[in-house]
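User: Here's a chain of 855 residues. Predict its fold as tokens.
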Amino acid sequence: MQEENEQENNGTEEKQETITKVTGMYKEWFLDYASYVILERAVPALDDGFKPVQRRIMQSMKDLDDGRYNKVANLVGHTMQYHPHGDASIADAMVQLGQKELLIDMQGNWGNILTGDRAAASRYIEARLSKFGLEVVFNPKTTHWQASYDGRRKEPIHLPVKFPLLLAQGAEGIAVGLSTKVLPHNFIELIDASVKYLKGRSFKIVPDFLTGGIADFTNYNDGKRGGKVRVRARINQLDKKTLAIHEIPFGTTTSSLIDSIIKANDKGKIKIKRIEDNTAAEVEILIHLPPNVSPDKTIDALYAFTNCESSISPLSCVIENHKPIFIGVSELLKISTDHTVELLKRELEIQLGELEEQWHFASLERIFIENRIYRDIEEVATWDGVIEAIDAGLKPFTKHLKRAVTTEDILRLTEIRIKKISKFDIDKANLLIEALEDKIRDVKEKLANLIEFAIDYFKRLKETYGKDKERKTEIRIFDDIVATKVVMRNTKLYVNREEGFVGTSLKRDEYIADCADIDDVIVFRNDGSLMITKVASKTFVGKDIIHIAVFKKGDKRTVYNMMYRDGKSGPSYMKRFNVTGITRDKVYDLTVGNKGSMVHYFTANPNGEAEVVTVNLRAVGSVKKLKWDIDFSDLLIKGRGSKGNLITKFPIRKIEFKSAGASTLKPRKIWFDDTVQRLNVDERGELLGEFTADDMLLIVTQSGMAKTIKPVLNYHFETDMIVLEKWDPMKPISAIYFEGEKARYFVKRFMIDHPEREDHFITEHPKSQLEIVATDYRPVAEVIFSKRSLEPITVDFEEFIAVKGIKAIGNQLTTDKIKQVNFLESKPYDAPDVNDIEVSEEDESEKEDGQATLF
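Assistant: Prediction complete.
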């Protein structure tokens, strides 16, 4: 720039640059703008829970309210008299307010919060205030007013809301350098909490969403900064190949949810066949699975990799006295409840003042007419004389009044018509005054017992408007889903041992395992080094690979057995260790560390197996014993950095595998946490027992299904599960059930014929129903009938029927309707041997009606 100036001025004196400081403008203009956005647009007020646009919409609807629906376009136009912004922002705010289904009665297509569909144009839809909104939001007598933006109208500073409306509706807004996110809470629970607070009792409130779903509020932090809410879709398994989503998480729509599922499938995180969206009034998304895909694992994968689970960070920020404050939802409720009590008090005081004024004038009117004071003004010629004459006539009779008689009172008396005077009924006048006195006493009593009155007010709101407002979001504690355990491993991992490369693109080389792009690979080399690296298309990990696998972080069950030579000619050692977690892409030495070390023998044992090997030495020097066996089970499992036990100081020729060994790990204790409906090894919930590799769980459901499964920690249990215990193959299962086709009750005892297969032990007739099931060896039950004339009976299952196959119909118990079945104390028993139980070969067809029948 200077060079140009020099050229233009032909070498004249160089011009100086001018720097303009904008600090003043920034401080004044930007601060004004930020304050305006925070106070007048984005953040709701503490007093009534409304943002300015919402408050102006409500006032406009009140202005136009005549009990009928108004076009939203008309309401928007009227609101523009209060709100200095465009019609589009007002219409959007009104739609959002209406979709909360609390203050506005809607007519027409107002959009769908489930699908994300937008509302129709404002000229096509209509609205009016709801009865609830009319009752709790408005009262001109307790409203403070201010001039509108152009000075032509009066608008409320705050509406006198007598309800914790902000917590019921929630609020979200982004301002300049500030945001707010108050989550919606349940209508009934807010009222119950307000009542508890007024009674001096503690309370706790958590959000509730119109979209339903499941939520974990463990870290809600009372809605303050730093809190977190985890929300999930409600996913049910329809059958082995179909999952159904019937409720979606807050903040999502069916469209965004389906898009996230499709993206996860495209990336290989999950595996689905197709998605079917049948959402109308209620959500129904069907996810069809391809063959050989676990529905349980897919459910976890949906939570881990899609919008079926999301995290919400609440931030309760409101405006108080023209300043933003951060406050918890419990404190918000207390302030709102106190504000409601204050508004009720002001309403009662206004009502009391009006009643006392009515009583005062009714009393003056009775005195004026009953004592014929109106005759005292017949001869008076001036208006002032008339006032003085009436005032003088009233004085002897006004001592019982609660305030002095004013000129305004006398002027009102002069306006009484002759017709009213001539038809004046002293009895009716007295009745009116007595009725007013009763009302005054009632209002004073309410003021004297203001808290009880407020409690009754909240209870009446609950009774009047609480229908169909029960909690929609289920409260549950979520278990953490480990992504690597549920990801669909659709990619194949290969290794080129000669060149030392590992990856998913080496399709011409040796196949290792199926993997996912979030997995890690563990690599052991012949020099005794170890490395873990992330799955990629092609990664160099070094030559002489002796073992490679997909790595499971925190895995204490996989044990590595290793024999190695220290250095080029040093002694040989053996060790057992596991690898639970190390730094990615860092090389670790599993030997002593001397140059030239090499691995003699290496195995990876997924369940801690310890094999027996034969050590063969070289025939050198004075070595006498050249061959002997070593059992790895004699070694303790230590850390990967341990040196290990000495095998020999002499050179080893070779090591041969001799025989496989059993697991050296202890049986694993497994618990069932009923809160999250999951198995765990963290001592949460009920202890199911100690499980070895061969042990299984028995599951029985109310629908009459029995099966055994491996105790997999991420298994999803059926919601109607009634039995979950460690399976004893020698213990029979006893049941009483109603057979729908025959309309009779049957007793049966059976064994699980096919482990890990679902079998129904009651018939599949729609009316068939399981009454009771027992897993004791010798159970006894009491059967109570619906008919009072029938005495209860005792059923000894062991005596009543022999053990049959799972598909046998059983022995008929009764045709009379059973009211209840109660278990009695089981008979004592000793656990039988395998040969003690004989399963009858009798099938359903061999048991005809009437056999072994008690009634």
